[in-house]
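To illustrate the input format used throughout this study, we show a single complete record. The first block contains the structure-token representation of the backbone; no residue identities are included at this stage. The design step must infer an amino acid for every position from geometry alone.
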């Protein structure tokens, strides 16, 4: 090596880094294996499918909703894991693709779902060792069944059911959140329109979409 500081690396340090990356990938592979609906230890929530991509930190998925307000809708999403997953504070990112759900928790411009709206901490503090891919997928499904969009702060509920005050911090689609409170009929109309669109455009990209689900 030359004397350049960026080229002076200890082989032992490189080996440790490679070993650490290999261990992290092994753990991620095990997490994914356990999502198997047939024999996995922590199977995917019903109707949710997650598929790996060539990038080991990126997955594509779909969710088939069978009940509730979003009944018979089909949405596609992408999960992007950060370097260092599944360490403390290493929050995954979720983006809905194609038809973006009409939902107060999903940003309409790019389909972004803020995972921190469901997990204030990720594998740290009291949540240490409790956050995994299955936890994330469960939350993705949960946002379609929430009957009241609100949070608790100092034991005083701030939300949009039974209260006209909306805490903007927790909602990515303010139009949907406001309609939920102020004009439920229009909210339901927009939601049904969105559900129909998700059904009509599910094969739009020409993919075969052969998935397994429970």
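Output of the design step:
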């Amino acid at each position: 090596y030359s004397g350049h500081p960026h080229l002076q690396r200890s082989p032992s340090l490189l080996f440790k880094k490679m070993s650490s990356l290999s261990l992290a990938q092994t753990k991620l592979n095990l997490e994914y294996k356990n999502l198997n609906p047939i024999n996995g230890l922590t199977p995917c929530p019903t109707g949710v499918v997650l598929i790996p991509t060539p990038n080991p930190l990126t997955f594509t998925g779909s969710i088939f909703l069978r009940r509730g307000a979003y009944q018979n809708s089909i949405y596609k999403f992408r999960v992007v894991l950060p370097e260092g997953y599944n360490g403390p504070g290493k929050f995954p990112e979720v983006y809905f693709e194609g038809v973006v759900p009409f939902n107060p928790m999903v940003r309409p411009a790019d389909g972004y779902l803020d995972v921190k709206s469901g997990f204030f901490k990720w594998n740290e503090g009291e949540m240490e060792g409790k956050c995994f891919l299955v936890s994330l997928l469960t939350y993705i499904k949960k946002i379609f069944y929430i009957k009241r969009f609100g949070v608790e702060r100092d034991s005083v509920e701030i939300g949009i059911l039974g209260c006209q005050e909306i805490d903007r911090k927790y909602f990515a689609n303010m139009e949907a959140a406001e309609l939920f409170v102020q004009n439920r009929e229009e909210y339901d109309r927009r939601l049904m329109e969105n559900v129909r669109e998700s059904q009509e455009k599910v094969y739009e990209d020409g993919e075969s979409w052969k998935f397994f689900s429970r």
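Structural context for interpreting the output: The first strand starts at residue 48 and ends at 52. The longest helix spans residues 11-33.
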